[in-house]
Amino acid sequence: MPNLILLSLLAAFPPLSTDMYLPAIPTLQMTWGISLAQANLSLVIFFVAFSVCLLIHGPLSDRFGRRPVLMAGIITFIVGSGLCAMADSITILILARVVQAAGAAGASALALALTKDLYDGVQRQKMLGYIGVIMAFCPMLAPTLGGLLLKVGSWRMIFVLQGVLALAALYGTIRLKEPLEEFTSGGLLSVAGRYLTVLKNRNYIIYAMAFAVVVLPHFAFIGGSPAIYITGLGLSEQTYGIYFGLNALGFMLGSLTCTRLSGVYKPVHMLIGALITMLLAGSVLMYLGGETPLSVMIPMFFITYAVGVSRPISNNLILDQVETDIGAASALMTFLIFMVGAFSMEIIALDLGKKIYVLGVLAFIGALIPLVSLLGVRKKA
């Protein structure tokens, strides 16, 4: 299996685990008589468990190799998917999602580490962009596919399909030649202590924390879009999947733009342009208020476009700050992204006012903080 396909499959575990399941949330609310906040816990707890497990898989892969840790993670994900399909209450579903998240974390964390292992410089930035393009098909296709499965069968089929798709990644991992040549040493305490080395890297920490905030509106939209489109604006599950997919198209086009312009424009200039676009789109979202599906979709399209442009560049920028403990560094930066994501998904589920306005505020904050941090670090340098 070509490296690009395998890396894309590994990076796609989180969106496959969430976006395909989104159309089923209103169904679960009605079936089990639960609130949106309770149903969203199956998303939020997934991301919390996923984020914590990232911190385990990263340094373990530095110690024992990428391949064995990947295989264990994917097998765990397949088992978790089966448990989700058999859940008969929100409590059991949440517990099964924890198992699923533990497996997905291995795939997601090591996708970045493998990119660092296999590619350098502009080539790595382009590869991250290509992965972003392919990954975008997951949130474009997944909600629509989830909606179709709900139409012809049960929500349980969504988790069965997730487990089947993971088998392809398992096949690619089995055929993967171990890329790591130098391994860390020591026991569990020594492995965990590798994070101390990573945390001492000032520029890495500043960039990793600042650019994690970029995903605030992205994950808030994932968590709040069923309530916005289906409950609030009265769209069907199938039509919701189309609108959600159009926003995901923005992410794909952003990643494609990044790939095409890499080596043509300076990465920092592209990054600043993406963040300014996100600032403006967030302001428009707050002003329009989301009275119609288009008034939600169009500003969110530009927000996800900006995220798509910025992610390959910012990930490459962060990885450039480290030369050792790549697994731990990749795990930590992914951990920060998904903890921010879990926070934003719970924020959008709370009754803090109109959800569209909250999305606009999160987009504004998500662009402003990394923009200020980027300019500040460059000025000091």
UniProtKB/TrEMBL annotation:
Record membrane topology: Multi-pass membrane protein
Transmembrane segments: 34-57, 69-88, 94-115, 127-149, 155-174, 204-228, 240-258, 270-288, 294-314, 326-350, 356-377
Keyword terms: Cell membrane, Membrane, Transmembrane, Transmembrane helix, Transport
Compartment annotation: Cell membrane
GO molecular-function term, one example from the UniProt record: xenobiotic transmembrane transporter activity
Pfam family, one: MFS_1
GO CC terms: plasma membrane
Residues covered by the Major facilitator superfamily (MFS) profile domain: 3-378
The protein's name: Drug resistance transporter, Bcr/CflA subfamily
Family: Belongs to the major facilitator superfamily. Bcr/CmlA family.
InterPro entries: Efflux_drug-R_Bcr/CmlA, MFS, MFS_dom, MFS_Efflux_Transporters, MFS_trans_sf
Broad class of where this protein is predominantly found: membrane
Cited Gene3D superfamilies: Multidrug resistance protein D (1.20.1720.10)
Any one GO biological process: xenobiotic detoxification by transmembrane export across the plasma membrane
Keyword Cell membrane: yes
